[in-house]
Amino acid sequence: MTEFDYYELLEVTKDSDKSTIKKAYRKMAMKYHPDKNPDDKEAEEKFKAVNEAYQVLSDDQKRQIYDRYGKAGLEGHGQGGGFSGGGFDDLSSIFEEMFGGSGFGGFNGGSRKRERKSYNYNLDIAVELVVEFNEAIFGCKKEVSYTYKDACKDCKGTGAKNGKLSTCPHCNGQGQVHMRQGFMTFAQTCPHCNGSGQAATSKCNTCNATGYKEIKDKFEVSIPEGVNDGNRIRVSNKGNIAPNGQRGDLYLQIRVKEDSHYVRHDDDIYIEVPIFFTQVALGAEIKIPGLRGELDLKIPAGTKDKEQFKFKGEGVKSVQGYGNGDLIVQVKIKYPKKLNTEQKELLEKLQESFGLESKPHESNFEGMFEKVKKWFS
User: Fold this and answer.
1) Which three-class secondary structure state does DSSP give residue 148?
2) pLDDT per residue over 138-190, tens digit each?
3) Distance of CA 84 to the CA centre of its chain
4) Does residue 106 have a pLDDT over 70?
5) What does DSSP say about strands 250-256 and 125-131: parallel, antiparallel, or unpaired?
6) Which of 246, 320, 323, 371 has most Cβ atoms within 10 angstroms of its Cβ?
7) How is 175-221 classified by DSSP, letter by letter?
8) What's the CA gap between 14 and 6, in Å, rounded?
9) What is the DSSP string of 58-108?
10) CB neighbours of 322 closer than 8 A, spacing ≥ 6?
């Protein structure tokens, strides 16, 4: 389903306290509960989403991560839908209110018509921010240039002349239109009024019926150390502006450029180090470039191609405060492309000095040739 903003889903602001969030959750859960909306797939999905939103916003740690990095930042922190934490207690209370305490019976509360917004854009916006590989690892300051929407004052964001609206003729003010396929009936948001249930009698000339004006802006933002490709950073009160002055947030979608030598996986850094075949035979100790300076790599004699060596804690600092990753060095053995006469002679003498050890194939295949001949005799 569509990814909802948790605050918009519960119809609360980002500075709401736990009590307000819990109250909003109970209200929305009651509204979309499957028992109140039988055979309504959309309500069922909304019910699941409301529960997911409450699990995050009622947990201080998860809420802090979500506020800064969005849903992507919650991966690996137990966020995967379903009921957990205090959800059961809250749902039990809701069942009592819905079914009169016994789990059965009718619902007496009545249904209040949902307040629909008059403007047709989201308050939160997202822009892509490209950062260099090293900027993501060590943090930096970046200038962000973007465009946001501000509600038209003349039409109050409605797109209608003088803000005058009438009942949408396509959905009769319901905000939804229904389609029937066989014995199934599907409901979807009215495409003509965007679910508001109201339509413009005549268009606003000031904003050309868009309901807003676009304003260009730029500001400087601090990118935290350890941010990774795909992370989102929330900048409060930099989003679009509603007719009542409420302003959404700006989400910076981070895209990190690749490096020609280092490869990042989560908080670990990989680097390939070429070594000459003689260094493998004799063993060696070389200096390699770590993220924060030179490191000494000891190569034992007999090291295999693609063998890896780990430098603990020399990777990227976790943006979520879980320590540092590791630097993993992978060896790539290099052989000479051509030999001069002297080098050939030296290698031949070296091979002879090993005797039978230099020809392992002879001992390995001993008797094989005769065995294969017998197969065809």
Assistant:
1) strand
2) 999 999 999 999 999 988 888 888 777 777 777 877 777 777 766 666 777 77
3) 22
4) no
5) parallel
6) 320
7) SEEEEEETTEEEEEE-TTTTTSSEEESSB-TTTTTSSEEEEEEEEEE
8) 9
9) TSHHHHHHHHHH-GGGGTTTT-SSS--TTHHHHHHHHHHHHHTTTT-S---
10) 267
- Determine whether 197 is exposed, middle or buried from the number of CB atoms within 10 Å of its CB (0-12, 13-18, 19+): buried
Which residues are 127's β-sheet partners?
252
Helix and strand numbers, DSSP H then E, in the chain? 10, 15
Rg (Cα) of the chain, in Å, rounded? 33
The token pair at 269 is: 């850094």
How far is it, in rounded angstroms, from Cα 145 to Cα 124?
A: 16
pLDDT per position as a tens digit, 59-81: 888 888 888 777 777 765 544 44
Query: Hey, how many other C-beta atoms are within 10 angstroms of the C-beta on 58?
Result: 17
Q: Pick the residue with more confidence: 356 or 128?
A: 128
d(CA 226, CA 167): 52
For Cα atoms 10, 13, 18, give the angle at the middle one, nearest 5 degrees. 70
Residues 6+ away with beta carbon under 8 Å from 139: 222, 223, 224, 225, 226, 227
pTM (2 decimals)?
A: 0.60
Cβ neighbour number for residue 14 with a 10 Å cutoff = 17
Query: Cβ distance 155 to 163 under 8 Å?
Result: yes
